[in-house]
Structure formats: structure tokens, C-alpha cells
Amino acid sequence: MTIPMNVGRIIYTNTEPFFAKWPYHLFPVMSGFPRQLAQAARDGEIVAGALPIVECWNLEREFDPLGSFGIAAKGACQSVLLLSKRPMSDLRRVTVGLTRESSTSVMLLDVLMKYRYQQIDITYKRGLQPNDDAWLMIGDQALRVWDKGGLPQWPYVTDLAVEWWKWQQLPFVFALWVCLRRIEFQMKERLHQTLASSLEAGLASLPEIAARQWPTLLIPSEKIVRYLQGFTYMLGEEEMESARIFRQLAHGRVSELASSPV
Predict the structure, then answer these.
(1) What is the DSSP string of 95-151?
(2) Which of 35, 107, 161, 203 is the most buried (most CB within 10 A)?
(3) Is 171 helix (H, G, I), strand (E, B) or coil?
């Protein structure tokens, strides 16, 4: 049986450098939010993509890393934000409304609350409601909030990648490129080469990417360029060590959150 060579594409601006020069005729693209693409991988609808790192752990029996490609931030990422009425360190017995789009950001928030701030009495729920004590926002929606300096009802805006950096002195890895293990080696190599050349072209054309994105984001192009420059797309030893630490810390929380309403 022929495996459809669909590649998953997270529909956030920070993935644009991977696809700036993508050969869609060779590898068709399925776009979606992070959790949607993880489900598509489970359902056999895509053979590769940059998937949330937490989802990569769940898929590792069937998917392998595709080179060292991924998405990481050393310090501020500007698009994984906790909006709250009190500082993060003072959040006790609160309800946090969660984005429906991601799993990694939820786990990162929970790890930070439990191990950095020793807060275990937090209630997490999917969806953002006015009576929540805090909101978790990610992606382009969060980036627009960051650019505005926050929202009137939320006096505190916390970048979770900054929190991780202050705590671990390591960049945080949000996503890894993975590839279905059972596809032919030659096709996997071709996909790897395609990704490498497309990313190289994308990183060399950030102003063009920003010019395409600003009508949607309503953020000045120069700010979008700086935003994209804040990410690491080829992961090294620091990123791998950070991912290892995060997985170790998250291990005891995965089963708890998986069985909860979030």
C-alpha cells in the first residue's frame, strides 16, 4: 500500500521559515493546530511534521526524529503566554483557562507551577472564560497580545519560555520534526534534504515572510522579523539537554493531565 506523503504544518508564524520555499508538488501539506496535527499523525494522515514535543513522546514508537530540526527559544518566545491577575509566583487555588490548541504549553505551565513555584492546587480547564483567574495563550493569538503589551483585564503577562530560561538556564524546545519510521529510507532522505534546503531559504528571507504575515497579524514587519530571529530551528546539545530535563519533570504529570478534563 502506498503511504500518502502528507507533511503536517502548524499554522503559526514561527513555522513559516520551514515552508518558505517548500515544494508542495513533492510533499503535500496538511495545515492545522498542534494538537490537530498530532492526531493526524496518530490517524496516519501525515508522515512527518514539526509536532509538539509532548506529542512526540507519545508517538515515538512509530515516528523518529527527522534530523535535528525543531522549534526552540532561548529566553523570550513572545507566543506562549500566561495572562493573570497576579504574578505567576502568587497564583494559588486558581482556575487557568487553557488554549484548545496545544499540549506542550499546558505541560510546561504545569511543570513550572509545580516544581518552580510549588503550586499544586491549580485547576486547569479547556477554553477561555471571563471568570477564569488566568489564561494560557499560544501562537499568533498570543503574539498579537504580546505586541499590544497585554490585555486590560490581565495586568500580568508571563512568557513561559522566559520562566524556563530563568529556572534552567536552557532554551525551551516546543516542537520536534519527526518522520514515520516505516517509510522508505530514500524517501526519508529526500524529505530531510527538502526540509534542510527550504529552511535555509526561509531563514535567508525573513523580511519576505514578515511582509506576507503582517496583514494577518497586524504587527509591523520589523517586529515579526525579530520575533522569528528569536527561535532556534536546528537543535543542538543545549536544546536536547533541555528536552531531556523537561521530559523527566513532566513524566509524573502526563498521566494526571491525560485523565483530567483538560
Answers:
(1) EEEE-SS-SHHHHHHHHIIIIIS-----EEEES--TT-SEEEEEHHHHHHHHHHTSB
(2) 161
(3) coil
Which residues belong to CATH 3.40.190.10 in the chain?
A: 7-72+172-236, 80-170+252-258
Task: Please state which CATH class domain 80-170+252-258 belongs to.
Answer: alpha beta
Phi then psi dihedrals of residue 108, to 5 deg: -60, -45
The CATH number assigned to the domain with range 7-72+172-236 reads: 3.40.190.10
Which residues, including other chains, have CB under 8 Å from residue 67's CB and lie 6 or more apart? 177, 192, 195, 196
3-class secondary-structure state, position 236: coil
Tens digits of pLDDT across the chain (262 residues): 455 689 999 999 999 999 988 999 889 999 999 989 999 999 999 999 999 999 999 999 999 999 999 999 999 999 999 999 999 999 988 999 998 777 899 999 999 999 999 988 889 998 999 999 999 999 999 999 999 988 889 999 999 999 999 999 999 999 999 999 999 999 999 999 999 999 999 999 999 999 999 999 999 999 999 999 999 999 999 999 999 999 999 986 544 443 343 3
Say how far apart CA 81 and CA 231 lie, in whole Å: 16
Q: Does the global pTM surpass 0.85?
A: yes
Cell of 6: 502528507
Here the cell at position 25 is 508538488
The answer to whether 51 and 174 have CB atoms below 8 angstroms apart is no
